[in-house]
Amino acid sequence: MSRPVPLLSASGLTKTHGRTPALRGASVDLHAGEILAVTGASGSGKSTLLHCLAGIVRPDGGSVSYDGRRLEDLPEKRLSELRRTEFGVVFQFGQLIPELTALDNVALPLLLAGTDRARARVRAGEWLERFGVRGQEDLRPGEMSGGQAQRTALARALVTGPKVVFADEPTGALDSLAGEQVMTALLHTVRESGTAVLLITHDAQVAAYADREIQLRDGAVAPLGVTA
To answer: Which residues form the ABC transporter domain (predicted)?
Structure first.
């Protein structure tokens, strides 16, 4: 029986920041609907791997393929389009735009994709409700709790119906209760929609939410349990 073709696949990725190697031949596959946790110590290359897989930065070597297309062959305009429509990205601190309300933050990707303002705001409100922050539409990020802001960031990442969500330490700035609420909301939503998730975390409890886990060590994928 043939194995399913990965939705997102990276082979032999290398990346150096200045003189410091961040990735040393990392390879990873992500399948449609799968939640994959990438764990490892600080400085192991986790965030750099995510940035390469999401097309945010280009690797120095190796290849990234998404849905049969090599990202390194795509022009920057097409990569930007992918990040607006088929990829969703969530960072540790949410990175919401401080001047915008929760509703406008979530509506922004739809507006950039050409959705008219009224429809974008309606859909944004629906996604805020799905993540349990209905009633906070007019709050700006500085007026929200950390958990509310991160659930708003998740709503923004998913409002376009992406095929892949890249979550970089999405609970790293939250207390344990808020982190659990964020992960529960994320998993419920992506299971319902069939969205694949690449989850970067150093927290074993967060990694336990995933279907599968890989570890990075010194920029390469290591067997699980290897830490030295």
So the answer is: 8-228
